[in-house]
Amino acid sequence: MKLSKFNIYTFLMLVFVAAVYRAIPGRPWGFAPQFAMAVFSGAVIKDKRFAFAFPILSLLISDLFYQLLFIAGIFEIPGFYNGMVSNYLLFGALTIVGFFTNAEKIASIAKSTVAAPTIFFILSNLMVWMGNGGYQRPKNFSGLLQTYVDGLPFYANSIIATVVFGSIFFGANQLIKKSADVRVAG
User: What CATH number belongs to 5-185?
Assistant: First the structure.
């Protein structure tokens, strides 16, 4: 996809809406559009700088919202935290999954929308366990497994969200492309 001003404004609006959605208090943990945005950006944006920038920008804006809600006493969890940079790098790396996604093939999209949250789940929980024992889990194999068990609710919600939001993003992209093809042909 060539990035025109319209495309950039559209993606920036998507980034903002996704960020606001992620920071809604009471939203199920892990149910957010950022994984789908990473896969979608990697699949459809040819300029890789933008492909990485949009999902990470959305994550940063939502963490800023979280921080403001935390400061206001509305949220009990801060938006800025130790390990944030590692999390962002890992999250940004998920955009690479999109590089291998064919935005024209449903099977390719389906594989990617399951692969991205799975990769994140495996690596992020491993990093949590290695860093601080995963919420005081022992630094042994049993503790590692317990850290993964602790993350299962987030993982399940992240897969569902990535499939739902990925369907919306890729589906809307196809509708826009077909609409543009009809205008050009007409």
Answer: 1.10.1760
Burial class (CB in 10 A: 0-12, 13-18, 19+), 120: buried
Q: CB-hemisphere CA count at 13 Å for 47?
A: 9
HSE value, Cβ hemisphere, 13 Å, CA-based, for 79: 24
Termini Cα distance of the chain:
21
Q: Please determine, for residue 74, whether its predicted confidence score (pLDDT) is greater than 90.
A: no
What would the pLDDT profile of 8-36 be if each residue is shown by its tens digit? 777 777 777 877 777 777 788 888 889 99
Cα–Cα distance, 12 to 107 (Å, whole number): 28
Establish how many alpha carbons lie within 13 A of residue 69's alpha carbon, considering only the half-sphere containing its beta carbon.
18
Residues 6+ apart with CB under 8 A from 162: 35, 36, 39, 113, 114, 116, 117
Q: Give the domain ranges of the chain.
A: 5-185
